[in-house]
Specification:
The chain has 253 residues and is mostly helical. It contains 10 helices and 3 strands. Helix 1 runs parallel beside helix 4 and helix 6 runs parallel beside helix 9.
């Protein structure tokens, strides 16, 4: 018997960074192509996630077909982490020359990202990658090796990278305040602040440029205000800029 399955495709225009199911599927395929390009097979990716290769195949099927399954946001986040980690490992390869070998020696600083206990989480020649890892685990960056003995701290970063770093640090504070039992509750709050869907949220914290969404100053100020409200036990208040607050104070006089 031949089945006739009709699926109604979304027609309502979506706000910026609110992905449709078709866009999620297309992005998933992009993630899998990056993994494949850096030597991570579908079988290896499925093993890392504890899923079957068949399930990953279904996530990439065209939306509207009977074989399609929409990938959960948390699973997509983990896949993107695998892909980005593979990309950065490949980017670091030119700087891993053996000092005793015939390859040239690269005199570049190697940055160490440590967690809040001071334990090493990652090492990398690209300071923004080290900073990203450190921000997500509540730690900091220190130089592990440098030809210049005076190199002790990260080089200056631009304002956009600074905003991304502040966002990551505040996001971690929110996740920690919500606790391990309510990870998705914390994610819902972050999505409301960023005006994005759950599938786009991860992109605000990555330094991988093709998938990065640049966070704005107002979003950073809002997430920092939410952190303060949560940590002192107050209900999260609607965000107001300093100018709006000052105008409101004048109206009360």
């Amino acid at each position: 018997m031949k089945l006739q399955i009709d699926v109604e495709l979304p027609t309502t225009p979506q706000p910026t960074y609110h992905l449709t199911i078709g866009e999620i599927t297309a992005h998933y395929r992009d993630v899998m192509s990056v993994l494949d390009g850096h030597g991570v097979s579908q079988e290896q990716a499925s093993a890392a996630l504890g899923l079957s290769p068949t399930t990953l195949t279904a996530y990439g099927r065209a939306y509207g077909t009977a074989a399609h399954r929409t990938i959960p946001a948390a699973t997509l986040d983990r896949l993107r982490d695998l892909a980005v980690d593979a990309f950065w490992r490949a980017a670091a390869d030119p700087y891993r020359a053996d000092v005793a070998g015939s390859d040239p020696i690269y005199f570049v600083p190697i940055w160490h990202a440590v967690d809040d206990w001071g334990l090493l989480k990652a090492r990398h020649p690209h300071p923004l990658r080290a900073l990203e890892v450190a921000d997500k685990c509540g730690g900091w960056v220190r130089v592990g090796w440098s030809a210049d003995p005076l190199t002790e701290r990260l080089p200056p970063i631009d304002e956009h990278a600074s905003l991304r770093s502040r966002w990551r640090k505040s996001a971690r504070r929110i996740y920690r305040t919500f606790g391990a039992g309510d990870v998705e509750g914390a994610a819902d709050l972050l999505c409301a602040i960023a005006d994005c869907c759950r599938n786009s949220l991860w992109q605000y914290s990555t330094e991988y440029r093709p998938w990065r969404i640049q966070v704005s100053l107002s979003q950073v100020l809002q997430i920092e205000a939410a952190c303060r409200d949560l940590e002192i036990g107050d209900e999260i208040q609607p965000f107001e800029s300093e100018v709006r607050q000052a105008m409101a104070d004048l109206e009360d006089l």
